[in-house]
Amino acid sequence: MFQGFCRENSRYHTTGLFRVPGRPIFEFHHQHAFMKYCVEVSGLAYQFGKGDPVLRDIQLQVPQGAIYGFLGPNGAGKTTTLRLITGLLRMQAGSVQVLGQSFPRHRLDILRQVGCLIESPAIYEHLSATENLLVLQRIYQCPRSYIADALQTVGLAAVAGKKAGQFSLGMKQRLALAMALLHRPKLLILDEPTNGLDPNGIIEMRELLKKINREQGISILISSHLLPEIERLATHIGIISKGRMVFEGSLEQLSGLRQQVQGCLLDTTDNTAALQLLSTYEICVVTDTGRIQLPALPVAAIAELNTHLVQRGIGVYGIQPVKNDLETIFMDLVNA
Amino acid sequence: MLAYLHSFQSEWIKRRHSAATWLTVLGAALVPLIVLCYRFYYFELLAAQNASADIWEQLYNRSWQYMGFLLLPMGVILITSLITQMETRSNAWKLLHITPQRLTTIFFAKLTVILVMLLSFFLLFNIGIYLTGVLPALLVKEVPFPTEPFPWLKYLYGNGTFLMACLPIVALQYLMGLQYRNFIAPLGVGLGLYIVSFIAFKWEYAYFIPYIYSILAFIDGMHQTVRPVNIYLLSAGYFVGFSALAYILYIHKKEKG
Questions:
Q1: DSSP state for residue A146 in the 8-state scheme
Q2: Which of A62, A125, A335, B40 is the most buried (most CB within 10 A)?
């Protein structure tokens, strides 16, 4: 299993005592360069009724200012995790800290600073876009001008007076996003916001989220089962499979796994002779693509092999390293 | 308290353009409209009726005959179910439950909206009754305005009894609307209970059926009936009991959307 980044405490602060010879006891305070997290989940577990647990010991940390892609196949436990984080399901085990506060203890304080879009858009279809936002404006008691701002941000200002029931799915998703953004939250929690959107709608939503994160500094926790979508959007990634976290780290760390060489593809003028030679060295090869695929070997071994092939009169016109693609990494992780 | 007011304002916006609002307005207007048509159908009686000393009693009895017996319980079942099911139909329970509001605030704000809608219904209905007496005089020259002063107190008392009579229906429909995630189940159970009440209203223990009180209120208004218990106290008891049960079930729901 791949290792994600080492988890740090959000406020990692150590105090210790050490003795310097010939000197009195000194006290030192060492404060790590720490990262702040807007969501910290630990030991989260859940089961519906007496069935099998759907979540087991979920650890999740969303750095402040990040776009955190919460990735996993359908049924992995993404929605259940997000519903537990937002209090839509009652917690059975573990702890959830949002914006530095314990969720069960400071539910109302936290919800004032969080915007959510859980699963399909929740909108009142008999009301106009403005009225939908007005419903929330009364609860949050934010200035009424925020309604126009939110609609402007998601590009629905022109249809503010139109009934939401007449909107396309993409427009409904954008309206739901406007409703989540209305009170200018510090954190957005979005559960599969691109579900059901056409490719154009997906691109629009992605750009919109990037813009919100960039311009308003809102941290975003977004779940999806679409790897390419998350790859294009997220700065940090958590992967869940069968109710367990199997990876958590930055996109760079996931890309680092991608750089690991899986093997080499060998192109020769005489594959049969080359295979004969390789079998004498007991190297396992695969040839189902018409090319010889070697396992991952040290660079010196590849160079030596090349020399041997050429010495036997077999022309080598290509040695191409095969790297992990993200999909392979993802599948390895979720199937592990 | 402030949070409750904000929550009520928010819930009140949701009823705009909704079927529940239309039902309130049209339901309240229907019977007075029928009575008005009936009065115009017997055009020759109009002048004499308006001149009679008990014109308002006649109109009150005629209007409440249809309303109390049939339309009011059905209207209350429909309006309560429509308001409560608004979140289910809009898939918006989760939206409501991630807003910074206590569950208690949400529960009482929604219940208040239903009760205010019910009051609006009564108000519109009474305006309708008043218009059935006044409109013929305004439209037809020969018809005089009612000479008898409008009996506010009698109307207020009568409306109060009918309002008390529907409270168990409101509470039980509200409970079912919060529990069931579909529209048909609470509506079906509500209409079923009402039909049972309708069939059983002559039974000696009928006053124990929570949906029967508007029928009994009408019968008691027409004839002096002696009952072993005060049906309005029983009705208030059912309302408090069902509301408390609805609250407990709502608060302890494991899934909030």
A1: H
A2: A62
Instruction: Round to whole Å and give the CA distance between A96 and B97.
Output: 17
Yes or no, beta carbons of A88 and B13 under 8 Å apart: no
Q: How far is A229 from chain B (nearest CA, A)?
A: 25
Q: What is the ipTM of this complex?
A: 0.88
Q: Do A111 and B99 touch (CB under 8 A)?
A: yes
Phi, psi of B106, deg, nearest 5: -60, -45
In total, how many domains does chain B have? 1
Q: Is residue B256 part of a domain?
A: no
Question: Look-up: residue for tokens 């018809």?
Answer: B143
Mutation site, B23, B87, B94, interface A, largest A CB count within 10 A = B94
Is the pTM higher than 0.90? The answer reads no
- Taken in order of first residue, the domains within chain A and their CATH numbers are 37-257 (3.40.50.300), 262-326 (3.30.70)
Q: Test B256 with A131 for CB contact under 8 angstroms.
A: no
What CA–CA distance (Å, rounded) separates A252 from A247? Answer: 13
pLDDT for B120-142, tens place per residue? 999 999 999 999 999 999 998 88
Indicate the residue of B10, B18, B94 with minimum beta-carbon distance to A138.
B10
**The domain containing residue B176 runs over which residues?**
2-251
Of A90, A116, A126, the CB nearest to B18: A126
Residue A231's pLDDT is 85
Secondary structure (3-state) at B180: coil
Given phi > 0 = left and psi -120 to 50 = alpha, else beta, which region is A172? alpha
Instruction: Dig out the tokens for B7 from the structure.
Output: 């929550």
Write out pLDDT tens, residues B158-175.
Answer: 999 999 999 999 999 999
Buried (b) or exposed (e) across B97-132, using 16+ Cβ within 10 A?
bbbbbeeebbbbbbbbbbeebbeebbebbbebbbbb
Q: Which residue of B has its CA nearest to A89?
A: B255
In a domain, B195, yes or no: yes
What mean pLDDT is predicted for residues B189-193?
92
Q: Does A140 touch chain B (CB under 8 A)?
A: yes
Q: Please judge whether B254 and A90 are an interchain contact, meaning their C-beta atoms are less than 8 angstroms apart.
A: yes
Mean pLDDT of A260-276: 83
For A143-173, the pLDDT digits (tens) are 999 999 999 988 899 999 999 999 998 899 8
| A116 at B interface, C-beta within 8 A | yes
pLDDT number for residue B207: 87
